[in-house]
Amino acid sequence: PAAGQGIIAIECRLGDARADSTLAALNDAETAAALLAERAVLAVLDGSCRTPIAAFAQRQGADRLRLRALIALPDGSRSLSDEESGDLGDAAALGAELGRRLLERADPDFLKGIR
User: Fold this and answer.
1) Exposed/middle/buried for 76, CB within 10 Å: 0-12, 13-18, 19+?
2) What is the distance between the alpha carbons of residues 22 and 83, in angstroms, rounded to a whole number?
3) Does the pLDDT value for residue 48 go beyond 90?
4) Distance separating alpha carbons of residues 74 and 2, to the nearest angstrom
5) pLDDT digits (tens, 9 = 90+) for 57-102
6) Mean pLDDT, range 28-48, rounded to an integer
7) 41 near 98, Cβ under 8 Å?
8) Edge-to-edge strand order for the sheet containing 64-72?
């Protein structure tokens, strides 16, 4: 799936303590970690909502996160995928590392096709 697909997010004013405390009760730490990991993959790959990139993170056990990611050419003729697991608390670093590994494996022509 696309990074962040299915996650509901609420924005509020920066510095609004009342809104922050009200919304804190709705925050799910596992979902937030998954979103951080998935969005980190997108950031490294310079992806947007129109880029053929998939990222899916899910908790494994009490404190681990499994992240799978894929980049594909728009016509589906080629794709690269990889996965990584790590500590739930290191979600952003996990996603960035996986994104870097995909970049290393992609040749320049492939990257031109997805950007």
Assistant:
1) exposed
2) 35
3) no
4) 14
5) 999 988 999 999 999 988 888 999 999 999 999 999 999 999 999 9
6) 92
7) yes
8) 53-60, 64-72, 79-87
